[in-house]
Amino acid sequence: MTDGGRLDLVVQGRVVLPDRVLEDGFVGAAAGRIAVIGDLRSAGGLPRAERTLQAGRAYVLPGVVDTHVHTRSEPAEGITRCTAAAVAGGVTTIVDMPYDMPSAVPDAETLRRKIRDVNAEAVGDVALYGTIRKTGGLDEIEGIAAAGACAFKVSTYESDPVRFPQIPDGELLEAFRRIAATGLPVAVHCENQDIVDRAIARARAAGDTGPLAHCRTRPAVSETEAVARVLELARDAGAHVHIVHASVPRSFELVERYRAEGVRATAETCVQYLVLDEDAMERLGPLGKINPPLRAPADRAGLWDLLAAGRIDHVTSDHAPWTLDRKSDRTDIFRNGSGAPGVETLLPLLHDAGVHPGRISILDLVRVLAEHPARTFHLFPRKGILAPGADADLVVFDPGEAWTIRGAELHSAVGWTPYEGMRVRGRVRQAFVRGRAAYEDGAVVARPGDGRFVPALPRRT
Ligand SMILES: [Zn+2]
Question: Can you give the residue range of the structural domain that contains 162?
Fold first, then answer.
């Protein structure tokens, strides 16, 4: 808003700030940014705007920042469909993984191409990871950082030697040193290759190929050993390491130990580890196959305790939208792809399972879905908070509306969800990206190209 100028948008509702809820609040936007946040009780009325939206008792939340999304692992999905699903779920910014099909994003030129594609195809905003080749790719790190990536992603487990390689430990240590010098975080998929490969070989030999064999062949130690190794390497290298999709409480305890020693370490879990456990595997079959796997009910309960205590930094979706033909072999779980779509259901599920029953507060929800992710990935305070000067990424969320999740009604291209038929409380009514409506009352109204690439903000190195 210029001096005496008019706002483009005012949204009235229960405005969720980092430390409190303005029960009779409003947010005003001009030129894509938040210009004013106020309290109706003291302001004496709403400011004038081109558009005024009365959200009543619905929350006005900062747009969710989902830092774990795979738009291009499945060509049927792509950036447009994935970001459409995102805004429909209140996720106004995704951080997209670099493991694209058919090849990853291991150099600045590939990243710049992807940035151009984002600016042409995205419906909501997109920040990007870079990665490194299995070996010999370390000289690309500085160029990737200079081109605007907000993080690097690497893995201790190999899904594909080119697209999703296991980085050998020596290369990983050197990569951590080079990435530390850029000031960016390095996100790591932590699973011990040898433990998993050996367990799968043994299960196959025994004909143990049912859904639960996937869980048994990736025991908790296959995750926690890799977490410990990665933390030890990061400690030596001085890197900010971010553990993705941690699925057992011990992974978070390890992160806390190293953090207490001064290591810059953060960790996320995914909503699926909070909402589902291995008891769902027989029912879900291949649809429940994710890496790391769904865990024991006791692990799920432990994650809720950690989340309620503020000891989990982020909650993400790990949206991996495989088409159903890769998730249909019920005779051999190992022949199915690992991963499930989830970007559109992240916010409603965490609200339904967390805020609605009182396990966490609405402030906690915003912290783990918006503020902390934006901070970790150098997007804060442009993203992740309702504050003057931030991008006007606003989500109108009705906490009272109950609805049933149906894969066919979601906006991802793949048409299925592991949460099929689940009734949840809380639904996104509108999502605005930089002050412009992206999703309203059941329809994605933003077009490809309305979304923008979001570079990492300047940082101290
Ligand atoms: Zn992932």
Answer: 63-376
For ligand 1, the distance from its centroid to the CA atom of residue 71, given in whole angstroms, is 10
**What's the total number of domains in the chain?**
2
Q: Same domain, yes or no, for 97 and 34?
A: no
Pair 278, 425 in one domain: no
The verdict on 139 and 241 lying in the same domain is yes
pTM of the model: 0.97
Average pLDDT over residues 230-243: 98
Centre of ligand 1 from the C-alpha of residue 99, in Å: 9
pLDDT tens profile 289-330: 999 999 999 999 999 999 999 999 999 999 999 999 999 999
**Ligand 1 centre and the CA of 4: distance in Å?**
47
197 domain residue, yes or no: yes
If you measure from the C-alpha of residue 186 to the centroid of ligand 1, how many angstroms do you get, rounded to a whole number?
14
Helix axes 78-88, 108-121, angle to 10 degrees: 60
pLDDT score of 125 = 99
Confirm whether 1 is domain-assigned.
Answer: no
Neighbours of 308 (CB within 10 A): 15
The beta-strand segments (E) located in 83-203 are: 91-96, 125-130, 151-155, 186-189
Distance from Cα 70 to the centre of ligand 1, integer Å: 7
282-294, pLDDT tens digit by residue?
999 999 999 999 9
Percent of the chain surpassing pLDDT 90 = 94
Q: How far apart are CA 23 and CA 26, in angstroms?
A: 9
Domain with residue 88: its CATH number is: 3.20.20.140
Angle at 367 between CA 364 and CA 368, to 5 degrees: 90
